[in-house]
Amino acid sequence: MIRKVLVANRGEIAIRVMRACREMGIASVAVYSEADKEALFAKYADEAFCIGPPPATQSYLNIQKVIQVAKESGADGIHPGYGFLAENPKFARACEEEGIKFVGPSSRVLELMGDKITARREMIKAGVPVVPGTQECVTDPGQAIDLVKEIGYPVIIKPSGGGGGIGMTIVSSEGELANALKSTQAIATTTFGLCDVYIEKYLPHPRHIEFQLLGDSKGNAIHLGERECSIQRRHQKLIEESPSPAVTSEMRAEMGAIAAKAARFVGYESAGTMEFLFSDGKFYFLEVNARVQVEHPVTEMVTGVDIVKEQLRIASGLPLNLKQEDVRINGSAMECRINAEDPLNDFVPTPGKIKGYHSPGGAGIRVDSGVYTSYTIPPFYDPMISKLIVWGKDRSEAITRMRRALYEYVIVGIKNNIPFHKAVMENPRFMKGELGTHFIEHETTLIKDMKRITEREKPLEEKLSHLFEEKKRIAAIATVAAVNQMALKPQRVNA
Ligand code: MV4
Is the CB of 295 under 6 A from ligand 1? Predict the structure, then answer.
């Protein structure tokens, strides 16, 4: 068994990993930047080392420094969390060469999945359905025009070195193709250092559905069902849920089996996600996320599997703790990402000091966070405050609980996107499960709804900021506030 894990990350995911370590009797080592001296994760760890200045390039992305601290502290494993070095094959290789276990797939698999053209080709070989498109890198405009004649417009040009939506260009007619190809290659080169691009048929209104996978070092792989992540804005997911309202148990069994088989095919070790577009009842492979994801708790809530503990067991050479037939999807879970951003001002980041903080609790609620009262969210990183995850016996109960929890949540001092989540939780189409990747732009009433919600809460907010300054009876007040808010408008869900 791994005995000591260095967590090469920050914030809530660093704490999430350290909590799993603590339950397993594994010691934890934090590395933090100068901006994170007061962060909770650095205090939670058994040991903590400052590794450099605030910019991530000089701290959390500094491979040499992270490896050096791992060696000095005697860590025999490194968990990369998500983002930063999580899918960096060079980092995984450096760990392999130093004899430190990287808690994730091998550098070979990271390389294979990191190049999206290679990943697509591997998935085709493994029998996974992909979006109609090119199998090779497209370089020449004439060649592109010929290829798209077979696919048909509209198409989408994607950088092979990318993923997550950055630098993609939609092309609706042949006249635009040559220029679009050139500009996408240019963006690909500057953003990812690789000019390779590929072309796919563009699906106009898909749902974003991903399967959670676990593979061990013995060649076993299973799936833990799907998550629907259609509510996103500029490639940032805001709400995720499992199961997807669009997926039947037959479809889940069929696609999950295909995804797990593909994981075995490439020799996938650790936790990972296979991302699909879902359109007209069909799944199309997009890419593999070779890491534990932000939204993994949604799957943990409906399956009862601790995904991070499984990662640590797998990294220690142990086989999977469960078989496919042991996996049951129980009830419904949903996650709202609570961000320090102003949803009424184009979602601009609003880092700063949290003057008052009270998070929701009670039945079916989980809050993963790295903040506390009087903590200052630094401006250098992702402005996520917390993840609010709820479980319900069905989707309707999950939504009711999410509403209840959002109205209990008190964050004083910085603007945040709770009004956005409150507005979505009472959106008729959301309640019916009618989701798609263009949900936010299509639902034009959301802004008006957020304004109404914010106005309604103004008097309360003024009262709360005063009381929080006095630090008095915070929990009681938050509860009263929640009851008051709920009483304003009785809500019923019919999903
Ligand atoms: C697509 C697509 C439609 N058709 N691929 C966005 C995230 C990344 N993983 C893949 N993405 C997409 N891929 C095909 N063949 C639509 C998206 C997409 C998107 C693309 C460009 C700009 C905004 C977008 C928002 C949601 C989904």
Answer: no
